[in-house]
Amino acid sequence: MTAAVRTRGLGKRYGRRWALTDCTLDVPAGRVVGLVGPNGAGKTTLLNMVVGQLAPTSGTIEVLGGAPGGGAAQLAKVGYVAQETPTYAGLTVAEHLRLGAKLNPRWDDAVARRRIERLGLDPAKKAGRLSGGQRAQLALTLGIAKRPELLVLDEPVAALDPLARREFLQGLMEAAAEHDLSVLLSSHLVSDLERVCDHLIMLLEARVRVAGDIDDLLAEHLLLTGPRRDPADLPAGQHVVSASHTDRQSTLLVRTTEPVHDPAWSVDRVGLEDIVLAYMTGGDRRPALEVIS
Ligand SMILES: Nc1ncnc2c1ncn2[C@@H]1O[C@H](COP(=O)(O)OP(=O)(O)OP(=O)(O)O)[C@@H](O)[C@H]1O
C-alpha cells in the first residue's frame, strides 16, 4: 500500500497532557479516508501535524514522502480546509480565487471558476455575506483548485444542513475521483463518512483505536446475541469490542475474521456507526489495537 501519510510512534504533548500518543498508521494514497473520534480525541492535532502547522513531540511523520510543511514544493502538494472553513470575510468570491491563483503554483483557475459557477456563487459577493454552507463550498473550491495531491479537511461539514452536507461531500467525491486526490477528512458524522470514505481511522483518548478499510471493518464486526455468557469464554479469534448483559442474555459486538459456528448465538451484521459507538463505549475489555490494510 502506498501511503499518503505515514506516522510511526507519533505523539504531541501540550504541557503535561498528551493530545496524541504512539500513533502509528498509514493513510492509503488515492483514497478518501475518514478520521473519527470523540471530542478531544486528537483529530485536529493529528491533522495539524499532517499539514505541518504543528511539530511532533515524539515519533515521525512523512507526508507524500516528505516532511510536512517542508518547503514550498511540499506545501503546494497539500491542501487544508481547517475546522472553521476559513475564508476572508471582507474579500469577494472572485478575490478569493485571485488570491488562490497568486498563492498556489499549481492553481487550476478553470476548475475554480467551473465550481463557483455550478454552485451558483456570486463572484462579487463578499465571503462574510455567504451562508455557512456557501462558505464551506468556497473553502472546498480553494482546496481543490490548488490541485493538491493530498487534501486534508477538519470537520468541514459540521455546521451544514443535511442538503448542504450532501452537496459538499458530493463535490468532494467528484474532485477526488477526477483529480486522483488523496483525501483525509475528519467528522463526527459517521453516516457521512460511510458514504464518502473507503478507509476509516478512529482515535480514542489520544490513541489510534482502530483503522482499516470500511468494507473489512463491516465484514469483520458481528453482533452476537444469546444466552448470558462470560465474554472471556469466547474462542480465541473473537475479540470483544463491547458487551452488555441482562440476567439471561448477552449481547456482544465482536471482531473476528472467522465465521461464528456456535448455534447458541444469533449473529447479525452491524453498521459502521454501531461499530464506532461500540469502540467508544467498549469499556475495559478493549482488545489491543489491530490494523487491517
Ligand atoms: N493548543 C492547545 N493547548 C493545550 N491543549 C490543547 C491544545 N489544542 C488541543 N489541546 C488538547 O489536546 C487534546 C486533543 O485536542 P484536539 O483538538 O486534537 O481533539 P479533536 O479530536 O480534534 O477534538 P474535537 O472533535 O472536539 O475537535 C484535547 O484534550 C485538547 O484539550
Q: What is the number of strand segments? A: 14
- Give the overall form: elongated
Q: Return the average pLDDT rounded to an integer.
A: 90
Q: What portion of residues belong to β-strands? A: 25-35%
Domain unit count:
2
CATH class annotation of the largest domain = Alpha Beta
Small-molecule binders: adenosine-5'-triphosphate
Distance between the termini: 8 Å
CATH fold-type name of the largest domain: Rossmann fold
Strand order of the largest sheet: 5-6-7-3-8-9-14
Order of helices and strands: EEEHEHEHHHEHEHEEHEEEEHE
Number of helices: 9
Estimate percent helicity.
25-40%
**CATH superfamily caption of the largest domain:** P-loop containing nucleotide triphosphate hydrolases
Which ranges are low-confidence, i.e. pLDDT below 50, for 5 or more consecutive residues?
A: 284-293
Q: Characterize the biggest β-sheet.
A: 7 strands, mixed
CATH architecture of the largest domain: 3-Layer(aba) Sandwich
Class from helix and strand fractions = alpha/beta
Question: What is the gyration radius calculated from CA atoms?
Answer: 21 Å
Task: Please explain how this structure is put together.
The protein has 293 residues and is α/β, with parallel strands linked by helices. It is built from 9 helices and 14 strands. The protein folds into 2 domains: 3-205, Rossmann fold (3-Layer(aba) Sandwich), CATH 3.40.50.300; 215-291, Alpha-Beta Plaits (2-Layer Sandwich). Strands 5-6-7-3-8-9-14 form a 7-stranded mixed beta sheet, with helices on both faces. Strands 11-12-10-13 form a 4-stranded antiparallel beta sheet. Helix 4 (109-119) packs antiparallel against helix 5 (132-145). The termini are close together.
